[in-house]
Amino acid sequence: MPKRPRSHILENLSRTRLRQAFEQMGWTVEDLAKDYGEDLLVRLFENNFATPYSFFVQAKATETLKNISRKEKHALIRVETGHVRHWTRFSEPVFLTLWDSSSDITYWVCVQDVLDATEEAPSKRERAKTMQFRIPLKNVLNEFGLRRIGGIAKLRFNRLAREREGREILIEAIEKMGGTVDSFSPDNGIVRLTYPDGESYLVFFGYLARLLNQIRIKTGLNCEDCLHEGLQILGTKIANGTLNADSIRDELALNKAHNELMAFEDD
User: Fold this and answer.
1) For 176, which DSSP code?
2) What is the DSSP string of 195-227?
3) Model confidence pTM above 0.70
4) Which of 126, 160, 194 is the endpoint of a domain?
5) In the chain, how many domains are there?
6) Which residues of the chain have pLDDT under 50?
């Protein structure tokens, strides 16, 4: 007869503990499809009224936490890199939880907070098939811990609102200085500015700014030099017939297929 794995029993018990804890706060808990990385979606309610705040949970369980010295102050768990890469695109926080069956205590950590604090380059992290996370043993899922989790969910939501407000204030300040914003592309990380003397400038931010900064560190080229060199290379390829619309589409398709394959292998 098929035997139910002990790990499956622990996972279900872990979810039960989480559901009880979150529902005691008046929050709603939804079970999500397995194998997509997120086990639970939790929506925050205050005084029985819905709020715009929510967060995801990936739940893990163990019977061996008792073997960890309290002096170490952390429990270590591994998470598939494909899931972590996916979570970096979330506006909602994602929490890793670890239920210790021997003590019936659940520990937790916010994935995005860990990633924001690490100094390791994203490309280096993504080369590994799994990533190791430290869950502080002081992060206990008690009433205080639950309030901290709710606070983190609110902070991340409000941070997005502040970023939008900050962009609007920045654009307004530039226009007051006599400049005009010709184009603003938040997805690409580019702002094009023009001043009364007719000079135009490109300002980069976000991922593109970090990428150009890495190129500058390795090559000594500034942003304008990078674009100039890149356009020259593209122009040469177009002139000798090695680059055209079809070849660009083919390259993008290959990159997309490669990324999807890597994500599939990680999952």
Assistant:
1) H
2) -TTS-EEEEE-HHHHHHHHHHHHHH---HHHHH
3) no
4) 160
5) 2
6) 256, 258-267
